[in-house]
Amino acid sequence: MLLDLRSGGGEMPKFSLALKADLENLREVRPLSDSQWHIKFKCLKCREDASDSYTTMRASEVVPIPNSRGECHLVMKCTFCKAEANASIDAASITSYTSSGAFQSIVRVESRGVEPFDWKCEEPMTATSTSDQEFLDASLDGEFCDYDERGKVPVSIMNVEFRVDKI
């Protein structure tokens, strides 16, 4: 867990990036080990969108927090009020999606000065079929359809939805 030391070392507020999808003949869908997370943040000072587009974070890219001994995965300034903010990915929380048809958290994000309100997945994930065949290019940007040669059944990921929940 990364701490923001600017404000006395307290824990940063936590948010869950949740996924919902209909999985056909798939046991799980999991993020790649070094996935990029595309997130939209709202500035807590001015309540405007902190940037014009999705901001990309990666758990492997650690940056120092300005004027602090702490570190995080993203340092940003609000495009409207110029307030400084930072965010971190809880790498230990990254998990596979296994709850077909229901929302499930697949990663947690901690933030200070901003809060995530939307996210999307632009990178492929690894999908594992019910017969344990892996599909390394399972896209959640639209629909994913393929054929499981081992299980002799079609596989798909459909009706994908994303949401952010405060923990």
Automatic annotation (TrEMBL):
GO molecular function terms noted in the UniProt entry: zinc ion binding
Alphabetical UniProt keywords: Metal-binding, Zinc
SUPFAM superfamilies attached to this UniProt entry: MAL13P1.257-like
InterPro entries linked: CXXC_Zn-binding_euk
Assigned protein family: Belongs to the UPF0587 family.
Protein name: DUF866 domain-containing protein
Record organism: Synchytrium endobioticum
